[in-house]
Inverse folding.
């Protein structure tokens, strides 16, 4: 034991770098970025690449067949339709991050829509209040699921399967004998789906796109500056410019297409905002870190002092709350809350969206952006098949195959990552 | 070793139902001292460590921290005092990167959000001062080898600036090279003035890094030895509890045959 080795930090005048020079060191500049990208692809860290390629392929195929898939009004409709199932998919992402599944979200969406509609239409309650009550009820339902799962120890699969049945029963009970409640004409619920910001003013669309691009670019530059100041490996400016450029291209093209039609749809704004906010919560707060920790290793999380039961319960509350929000958008879109809302393949589409977007079924890996990308794929397929008048039987089979393909990709990429030591 | 011990157990007893796991155990750990805790399976090593870590509160006796009596009833109490424990199963989250694991449960924050830059900087400083080599602090734990995980787990214990570090069989599953790295790390902890309690079955490791060996046998103290002035055989006989045992018989036989 030599004391001069470690007595003071000054004694280690030149500490050996913690980074092993042989491994994973990136060259500076764009060349390094490309090399890193190639390495990631090879080692199975596919990220969003397959789903983006899939979207382009889907767009090209349906445009080729129908000739009007990429029209402004069709694309605008897609952005409106994705909000409902997309919000449910955001909730699914949270549950999947824990490595669990929530099968009740369709029913929860249905029961929330029913509560909001019945309270506002039949009981004459203020619509905003009715919406809050509906979301609150869903969060309470989520807390109940979470309690049975986290405290009693019933598998989440079983708890939420019971919920699937029970809450759709409650949905029927709330709706009563008539079964269908039409939302108030031009009320808050109706406007959720039909309103365009500034009544279709193009300035809103451009403003929203430019704001998003500017925030993204500024965030990247600031982060890079702070890392440089701290002496850490930072993204080079060329890479930031490339990333911001790609985002800007997507944002501006989207804004242009939306403005060709009716402008900026409210459902798209809310959905995007929810995705951005939840992504921030997951990646930048200790609560988000706790969710990932519980998904990656329950015992490690517990030893680190994380309240595992609370994380689990709160995640089920979040997923149910998201489902309620999604249910309200679905009700708004169909103009009514009925007994079938949230049944059928709503749940399956949302789970499929989360998985197709790249959130792992095995827990601990994923982001809420995958809900957006995944639901875009699913909705594009559904809309495209509708345009070419394919009947529902075939639609179900195609959507099912896409889900299977996504899960296969997830499993295979996990294997590849393991074998290249990046699991 | 002079001065008051950082941690002292005085007459600690612990029973589980009908089993008297620990009886009147004494243990002292000074700053800058590596105490090896050895004993056969079931001798009470793990129970003793768990009483210090706050997993099992003690039934009798007292625990002194820097000369004053304290009570440790929960893991949180131990952490607050400055006891960090690295268990045999490392309890790292495979999906989080090294920085995420190092600061799990005590993230550095700025305006209520995670301060990744500060955490990464501190992580690298910590790993550098310990001369820990890992490919990158931003790769998931799943991508690291067993030895690398062990050093990350030990580094993780140091994030909270503890005064006592308990290592439960840190070299049990490691190869030659990795074992040497972990032993180096133990020496560096001692160099930083930390008290280290090292549980090990490996006498070579014990002889290599420990200053003092405390032997437990059937839940009781069975001798505390200075490593430098104690032979391998003396420790073995303290562990097995007799001078007449398999090891001495074998040596006697070998000596006989040599004649």
């Amino acid at each position: 034991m030599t004391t001069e080795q470690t007595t003071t930090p000054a004694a280690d005048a030149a500490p050996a770098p913690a980074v092993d020079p042989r491994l994973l060191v990136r060259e500076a500049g764009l060349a390094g970025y490309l090399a890193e990208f190639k390495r990631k692809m090879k080692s199975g860290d596919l990220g969003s690449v397959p789903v983006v390629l899939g979207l382009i392929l889907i767009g090209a195929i349906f445009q080729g067949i129908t000739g009007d898939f990429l029209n402004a009004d069709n694309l605008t409709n897609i952005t409106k339709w994705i909000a409902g199932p997309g919000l449910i998919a955001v909730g699914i992402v949270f549950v999947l991050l824990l490595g669990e599944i929530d099968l009740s979200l369709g029913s929860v969406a249905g029961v929330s829509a029913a509560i909001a509609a019945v309270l506002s239409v039949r009981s004459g309650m203020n619509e905003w209040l009715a919406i809050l009550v509906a979301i609150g009820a869903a969060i309470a339902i989520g807390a109940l699921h979470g309690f049975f799962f986290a405290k009693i120890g019933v598998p989440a699969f079983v708890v939420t399967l019971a919920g699937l049945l029970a809450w759709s029963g409650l949905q029927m009970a709330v709706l009563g004998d008539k079964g269908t409640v039409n939302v108030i004409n031009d009320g808050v619920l109706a406007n959720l789906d039909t309103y365009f910001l500034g009544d279709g003013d193009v300035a809103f669309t451009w403003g929203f796109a430019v704001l998003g691009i500017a925030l993204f670019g500024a965030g990247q530059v600031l982060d890079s500056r702070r890392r440089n100041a701290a002496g850490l490996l930072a993204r080079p400016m060329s890479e930031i410019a490339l990333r911001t450029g790609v985002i800007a291209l997507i944002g501006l093209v989207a804004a242009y297409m939306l403005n060709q039609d009716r402008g900026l749809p409210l459902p798209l704004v809310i959905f995007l905002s929810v995705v951005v906010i939840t992504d921030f919560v997951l990646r930048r707060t200790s609560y988000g870190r706790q969710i990932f920790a519980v998904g990656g290793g329950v015992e490690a999380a517990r030893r680190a002092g994380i309240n595992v039961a609370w994380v689990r319960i709160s995640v089920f509350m979040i997923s149910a709350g998201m489902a309620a929000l999604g249910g309200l958008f679905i009700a708004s879109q169909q103009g009514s809350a009925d007994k079938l809302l949230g049944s059928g393949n709503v749940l399956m589409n949302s789970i499929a969206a989360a998985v197709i977007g790249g959130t792992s079924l095995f827990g601990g890996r994923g982001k809420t952006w995958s809900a957006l990308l995944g639901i875009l794929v699913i909705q594009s397929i559904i809309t495209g098949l509708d345009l070419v008048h394919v009947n529902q039987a075939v639609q179900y089979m195609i959507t099912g195959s896409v889900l299977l393909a996504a899960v296969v990709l997830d499993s295979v990429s996990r294997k590849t990552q393991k074998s290249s030591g990046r699991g | 070793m002079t001065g008051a011990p950082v941690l002292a157990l005085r007459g600690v007893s612990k029973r589980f139902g009908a089993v008297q796991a620990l009886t009147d155990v004494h243990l002292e750990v000074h700053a800058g001292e590596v105490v090896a805790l050895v004993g056969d399976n079931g001798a009470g090593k793990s129970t003793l460590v768990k009483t210090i870590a706050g997993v099992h509160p003690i039934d009798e006796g007292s625990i002194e921290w820097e000369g004053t009596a304290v009570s440790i009833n929960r893991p949180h109490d131990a952490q607050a005092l400055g006891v960090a424990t690295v268990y045999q199963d490392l309890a790292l989250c495979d999906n989080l990167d090294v920085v995420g694991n190092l600061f799990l449960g005590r993230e550095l924050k700025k305006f209520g959000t995670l301060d990744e830059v500060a955490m990464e900087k501190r992580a690298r400083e910590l790993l550098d001062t310990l001369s820990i080599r890992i490919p990158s602090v931003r790769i998931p734990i799943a991508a690291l080898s067993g030895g690398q995980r062990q050093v990350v787990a030990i580094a993780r214990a140091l994030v909270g600036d503890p005064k006592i570090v308990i290592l439960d069989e840190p070299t049990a599953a490691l190869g030659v090279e990795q074992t040497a790295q972990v032993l180096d790390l133990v020496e560096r902890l001692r160099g930083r003035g930390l008290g280290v309690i090292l549980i090990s079955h490996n006498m070579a490791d014990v002889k290599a890094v420990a200053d003092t060996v405390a032997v437990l046998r059937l839940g009781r103290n069975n001798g505390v030895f200075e490593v430098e002035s104690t032979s391998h055989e003396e420790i073995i006989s303290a562990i097995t509890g007799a001078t007449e045992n398999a090891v001495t018989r074998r040596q006697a036989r070998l000596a006989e045959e040599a004649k």
Q: What stands out?
A: Strands of chain A lie at 180-182, 336-338.
